Amino acid sequence: MRKPEVFVQADRTLNNVVARIADDQWDRELPDTMRWASQLVTLKDLVNHHARDDAWVPDVLAGRTIEEVGDQYEGDLLGADPRAGFARWVEIAVDAVERFHDFDRTVHLSYGDFPASDYLLHATVFRGMGLYDIAEFVGIEPEVPEETVTALYEVIAPKARDLREMGVFGTAVEVELGCPTAGPPAGPHRSIATGLSDRRRSDSPQRGDRPPPGWAAAADRQ
C-alpha cells in the first residue's frame, strides 16, 4: 500500500477516535506524558493540535514555508462542535493528499526540508501514535482496522531505525504475539509495530518521556 493511502487510513481512523470523545472529556487535563508541546493542557488542546497539523497539509505539499503561511492556523480550529470541526480538517488534509502526486518534491517543515514522501511518513506516524494515545486517555478501544495496522507496520518498519534516531520511538522491545482468546485481537503486525515503536501501556516507565519532533510546520513554535 502506498504512503498516501496509509496516511488517509490513519487520519480517518484518528477522526473515528475523536468522534467518540464524550462531551465531558474535552476539558480533561492531560498528564505530563502527553504534554509534549507547551500549549497542550487539555484534551481539546491536543485534538486542536492534530487539527492544526491537518490544516497545514495542503500548504506543506504545495511547498510553502512557515514564513509564507504565517499564523493563519493559530488559535482554536475546532469551533463550537469540536468533533465536526476536526472532521472538517481531516477531510481537507485527505483531499490534498489524494490529489498529490509529486512525492519527490522538497517540502519545508519546522525541523528541516524533506521529500514529500518522507513528510507523509512522518505525518502518518504522528496520526498513528495519536489515535492510540487519545483512545487510551478517554478509555475506548481505537478500533483500528487490521488492514490499517498492517499498512502502518509496512510503512513504519523499514524506517523504524531512522525514526528512533530522531527521538520519535524508544528502544525496540520484545513483544508476545496476541492470543485471539485473550482480550482485544492483536495480530502479528499490531504486536510487532508496538515493539518497534515502544508504544506500550501508559504505565510503562519509558513511554512519554521523549517529546516527538515537530512533525510538520504546525509544530509548537512558541
Which spans of ≥5 residues are poorly predicted at pLDDT below 50?
Answer: 173-222
Estimated radius of gyration: 17 Å
Helix content range:
40-55%
Kindly state the mean pLDDT as a whole number? 78
SS element count, helices: 8
Largest sheet: 2 strands, antiparallel
Q: So what's the overall shape? A: globular
What is the rounded distance between the termini? 36 Å
- The overall strand count is 2
- Strand share of the residues? under 5%
Q: Biggest sheet: strands side by side, in what order? A: 1-2
Structural class: mainly alpha
Order of helices and strands: HHHHEEHHHH
Short key terms for the protein model shown above:
mainly alpha; disordered C terminus; 8 helices; two-stranded antiparallel ribbon; 2 strands; single chain; 222 residues
What does this structure look like?
The protein has helices at residues 3-18, 43-61, 66-69, 82-99, 116-138, 146-156, 160-165, 188-197, and strands at residues 106-109, 112-115. By secondary structure, the protein is mainly alpha-helical. The chain has a two-stranded antiparallel ribbon. A hairpin with a 2-residue loop joins strand 1 (106-109) and strand 2.
